[in-house]
Amino acid sequence: MKLAVMSKLGAVAVYFFLTVLWNKVYFPGAYKALEKGIAFLYFFVSGESMESMSVFMPRSSFYKIFRTFFKEERSLFNKEMARCFSTMFSTPEIRMRSARWSNPKMFKHVTLLLDGHDTRATYGELKSEMYSFKFRKSGLRTQVCIDVNNMVVFVSKSESCKKHNDGTMLVDMGVAKRIHEVDCIGLDGGYPLLIPKLLEKEDTLDIRNFCFPIRKRNGQPLDEDEATFNTMFAGFRSMVENTFGDLGSTFAKFNHKDAIRTTDKREVNMMLRLCFLLLNVRNMSNNLSLDILPHHMEWIEDGFDYPTTNKPVLQNSEVETVQNRLQNGSELQEL
């Protein structure tokens, strides 16, 4: 497992995960904390199911780890990931300087790019309500914003595909609170029709905060300059799709081959945010050519574990009752 995780994420990203996120709480089970953390990462990198993870540890043991992260300690880890996204990778000044330095001439003002990411998933909602035209199967849609350095800056809530198109999600996601007044977001043609509604709702934004393709007027064809603008803009925006491709090639859990089975769409959203966070750490480490120091590699040594002050304390939510056992069993079967 360690070699597989290492090959996909690199030493620094795994070190970051184990020392910044994983050590926040005690995860139940007889295994070392580091071993549980590596198994957790391997679950996403390999795309293994809850059932197939039983090759490495009992299914019930892995589910307790999964449940601790995504259910019992959801608030803590969501807060920590939000802090990392907001402070570690991108600032308005970095975005503006990078855009002026590297963007095509016509798009020097564009600092952010936003697009919807569809994830194959199933949960309690009717499949017809989750229908994704991209997959022709059920799915969840999430708005993902990257900066011009390919760093994911923020991720929206995940919603059922059929009733939540890109424009509607843009209006509802509170984008004004997530960007600076000097930011300009590059959008594809699925968003502009709802921008007037967004501007009515968000008085701190105006049309200059958005860049999008030029639409035909009254059925008239675009002139040469307009067509050139649209073609160049589409090429520029392709870096969003590159980010989505990087996600799928790094984490088999998001390669769309198999649907993610869950009892709560918030879990899928949290998985997505975690994976994008790890991509950011890996890609920034690679882009800056950070030296791999000995302490970054300690986790790969057999028998090594990080010291922790977290004691295995029985939480109220972990008290064994018949109701808890039935609930745990039901959720495990659904997964």
Written description of the protein model:
With 335 residues, the chain is α/β, with parallel strands linked by helices. It has two domains: 2-80 and 288-334, no CATH class; 104-261. Helix content is 46%, strand content 12%. The chain contains eleven helices and seven strands. The chain has helices at 2-21, 33-46, 59-72, 74-87, 92-102, 166-172, 195-201, 224-250, 265-287, 294-297, 322-334; strands at 112-122, 131-132, 137-147, 152-160, 185-186, 210-211, 260-261. Strands 1, 2, 3, 4, 5, 6 and 7 form a seven-stranded mixed sheet that branches. α7 (195-201) links the parallel β5 and β6. α1 packs across α9 and α6 (166-172) runs parallel beside α7. The radius of gyration is 22 Å and the shape is globular. The protein starts with a helix and ends with a helix. It holds the Pfam family DDE_Tnp_4. This is DDE Tnp4 domain-containing protein.
Helix content: 40-55%
**Poorly predicted parts:** 313-320
Shape: globular
Rg is 22 Å
Labels describing this entry:
2 domains; alpha/beta; seven-stranded mixed β-sheet; about 325 residues; 7 strands
Quick structural overview:
This protein has 335 residues and is an alpha/beta fold. It folds into two domains: 126 residues, no CATH class; 158 residues. Helix content is 46%, strand content 12%.
